[in-house]
Specification:
The protein is of the alpha/beta class and 230 residues long. The protein has helices at 16-26, 30-33, 37-48, 67-74, 87-99, 140-150, 171-179, 190-195, and strands at 55-59, 79-84, 106-110, 123-129, 151-163, 199-210, 213-225. The protein has one domain (16-224): Rossmann fold. Strands 3-2-1-4-5-7-6 form a 7-stranded mixed β-sheet. Strand 4 (123-129), helix 6 and strand 5 form a beta-alpha-beta unit.
Length: 230
Amino acid sequence: MTAPRFKMVAPSFRTEERMRSYYRWRAEGYDRATVYEIEHHREAIQLADIQPGEDVLEVACGTGRATVELADRLGPAGKLVALDISEAMLGHARRKAEERGLIDRIDFRLGNARDLPLPGSSFDLLYNSYMFDLIAEEDFPPILEEFKRVLRPGGRLVLLNMSKDSLRRTPYEMAYSAVRLFPCRPVSMANHVDAAGFTNVQRAYRKSFLGPVLLPFGAEILTSSKPALG
């Protein structure tokens, strides 16, 4: 799998406690500030190829923007576990699920992607969005190992993150490097996912728009599978 390679800065503030604090602050206005994510979620969920009755884990569910769509596609026989490190974000996700009448299909949990509180080989699909662009690069391998652990053989992994399509530094990155105030930055996950032992790694890059305005960063949708036994 050929993918862009570029340096990913890992500021010291990217600790679990600081991320939890950041999302307590962001929770109330997160959906209004990130409307450009909606179309990327729709495509990623479509590519996830969810089948009714499957077992699905969403790691870093945030305000539940994708959670309710995942639960809806699973149908009444399916079960979704939605996990996040922020109780404030989970509160918004629960409200969305209640409003859509989907709360009974979703098991909301407070937890950490580095140590998932779940047994191995439990899920057909793991959906994770806008998380790796927040965390330090040295945490990628252990988290991807956790993702592989909880997936069943042949299970699918779908990642959605802020990204870019070339080696060229964007204005966003130049501003980020200058002040280091923003918690997220573009990432390219294909090589990391491949190194973690996933197969059929496919990457799609999509531009991000805020209304008619093209943003200086886009998104990558990555699909892959845990190898099947035998």
